[in-house]
Amino acid sequence: MSDFVNNFWSVYVAGITIVGIVACLVLLIITARKKVVSDGDNTTGHVWDEDLRELNNPMPRWWIWMFVITIVFSLLYLLAYPGLGAYAGKMQWSQVGAYEAEVEKAKAELEPMYARFTAMSTEDVAKDGQAMAIGERLFMNNCAQCHGSDARGGKSFPNLTDADWLHGGAPENIKQTITQGRMSMMPPQAEVVGTAEDVRNLAHYVLSLSNSPHDSLKASLGKSKFTACAACHGMDGKGNTLLGAPNLTDDIWLHGWGEKAIVDIITNGKMNEMPAQDKKLTPAQIDVLTAYVWGLSNKPGTAN
């Protein structure tokens, strides 16, 4: 791996670039000085197809000057901009810097519009058509990769259109999640639960909490083992939003359901991460995105 982080490749790229420019300059000089002895009829003596003769005319002046200008331009460009390995150039230009400048310019231009939304409540922003159009684009650009373009999520990625919230569905909870991100961890519990059979019995008890298909005998045997889970999920299995512990009594399974899936989670644990967005989005953008996400599960006529 060290081959890709030392200075060799920087020097190599710079060397190849300079050698290429110098080679072009040398070729131009040699070509300009080379004189071809011509016959009395101003030809080089080369004949094709019996009657096609190559004339011994010099290269056009404009072509030579274009070549010279190209070489001079390349040298000035490499002096001003990065192109010689790790050399940053006199103007200190970079793709990252240009991107950040464009982002800051866009933020400044959009600030007056976002200021209006910031002064509104989340509920009112969710009713504003312009705000929701902006929120949808923010969602597509920053959230849809995991939660899907329809926000219905998938295995291990929460559905944002229902009323099931691991960390709470109030606007302030959603805003905190977007801003700071979330890290949820279900630690392995197999050693605490007991034998492999005990783990399977516990899995059936967990299934019984939501009236999912299960073996009632195994569920009765696994009930006593649920104490290993109650610290997070509660004795009633309804979860804890402060800890991000899922409600096990509904029919929503974030990581898959059935004996095999639950046994795997109990045995190996599970970790999920929602990355923080405060470095990518402004507070005003987060407010609009919060309203958009909140509105997905709080449309008119739906229960909060």
TrEMBL record:
SUPFAM superfamilies, alphabetized: Cytochrome c
Say if the entry is tagged with keyword Oxidoreductase: yes
Q: How is the cofactor bound?
A: Binds 2 heme C groups per subunit.
Q: Which domain of life is it from?
A: Bacteria
| Pfam families membership | Cytochrome_CBB3 (PF13442), FixP_N (PF14715)
Which cofactors go with this protein?
heme c
Keywords per UniProt: Cell inner membrane, Cell membrane, Electron transport, Heme, Hydrogen ion transport, Ion transport, Iron, Membrane, Metal-binding, Oxidoreductase, Repeat, Respiratory chain, Transmembrane, Transmembrane helix, Transport
Residue span, Cytochrome c domain: 130-297
Chain ranges passing through the membrane: 12-32, 62-81
- Where is it located? Cell inner membrane
Q: In which pathway does it act?
A: Energy metabolism; oxidative phosphorylation
Q: How does it assemble?
A: Component of the cbb3-type cytochrome c oxidase.
Q: Which family does it belong to?
A: Belongs to the CcoP / FixP family.
Describe its function. C-type cytochrome. Part of the cbb3-type cytochrome c oxidase complex.
Its protein name is Cbb3-type cytochrome c oxidase subunit
Organism the protein comes from: Comamonas avium
Q: What is the lineage of its organism?
A: Bacteria, Pseudomonadati, Pseudomonadota, Betaproteobacteria, Burkholderiales
